[in-house]
User: What shape does this take?
Amino acid sequence: MRSEIPQIEVITAIGEADLEDYVAQLLFTQGWSIIFRAFDGAALEEFMTARSTQLRTIIVYTTELPAFTSDLILKLSSTVVTFVSLDGVPSTAHEIMQKIRSQLRLPMVHQGDAALPKNVSSPIILSAPKKVIVITGSAGAPGKTMFATSLAQVMSSQRKVTVIDADFRSPPLESYITTNSYSISSLSSSQKPVNLPEGDAKEVSIIDVGVLPPLNEVVNDRRWTALLYNSILDSATQLVYISQTTKQSLTQLDIFLKELPVLTKQIPITYICICVGQSKQLRKAQAAFTQIVGRERHFFLNEAHIKPSSTHFLDSLWASREKGQKEIGSIATSLLQ
Assistant: This one.
């Protein structure tokens, strides 16, 4: 299906070389097309004059770019040319992408009922090819399954979604989740599966694997569980690691990152931190999480955004938690780009 939004073509006009390189690489990983990297205001003006201001263009800039002036913004701006300033924005993937998307007003999640009207479907989600999103994380129930089902609920308004339950340590997902929004397929350990079930070429598969064994075991073990994990990781287009702001969870996250080099396939990874605890301790844990993941793509979610209420597993997501809807919608959009 053709997207209702033209391909996003981006120009970087950032004074600091290291920041410009980081932003360019970040946008590239998001699937955006970097068409020009301006080294000063004159080069930017020359390129845009040759390109035309009638083509949809995003210019990500900082005012410290040599020869950059506010007059340049007035001269080059149009209904299809958008300037996005990164002045004062923290140099993290989450903050940078949040700022850019907020300026572009890219479709996230419709505020309201979980079943989004078809006429407000996100073109980014609708036009995306088949995705296999693997959900894993630390032990201690940080919220892996709740996040997987929340993500499925968001995506299912615009794509066919199947949640594959491959967490053999927990009760089958089908036994306590009932929904018409997406499909659920629980793998059975008694059948010793070594491959994923085949799905539709355009669907999104969200695979809840629970806690992965040490990656060295996954790579070298020949038992059926390891063969299955290898098959899942080989099929993955995205991997999401769920952590929590507890010392044990952050320690496991650190170990996971150190083990990553044993994987032969490089998988884009998004790190989610579920925030729990008192404010002072929470800030300290958030800082530790950010230090561990560095510049990798990451998001913070409040526990209340995915924690189930007493009436329905997903009530807490859709009740009135606008920020939770926006954050999970933002994550869903980033995973489908």
Summary: The domain at 9-104 is CATH 3.40.50.2300 (Rossmann fold). The two ends are 14 Å apart (CA to CA). The mean pLDDT is 80.
